[in-house]
Write the structure tokens for this entry.
Amino acid sequence: MAEVPFTILDEGRAHGVSASLDDAHVRLSASALETALGWELKPQGLCRGDVCMPVAGRAGLVQDGRIDLAGFAMLTQRPLALDPSERVAALGASARERDEALAGGIAPDFTLPDLAGRAWKLSGFRGKKVLLIAYASW
């Protein structure tokens, strides 16, 4: 299986990795998964910091030391948009992460330009009341 350049979009950042593509599967080496997403393949499972998820009995998740990206997304309960023909995938936040953010009452950070083109980050207004007005021309 030949390695090809592949882009993983995660938390607003693009990570370039090498991946192997076969049929509808995108498989990453253990080092590519660790570099892009911070998860390490260990004997006890996939680990990130002190958190480990066992992978035994999950047929097809790890094959020849390579991790199936769709299987990884299911294991971590994260939505995945995958386009192998364009060599790109986007991972969304898990439902638990979204619930925690909503329960905390803190809006996700984003950046928007004003009419003069100056970029403003929502996080720059933490602790202040903010009114956002949006419209669409369509």
About this structure: The helical segments are 30-37, 69-75, 95-103. The chain has three helices and twelve strands. The first helix runs from residue 30 to 37.
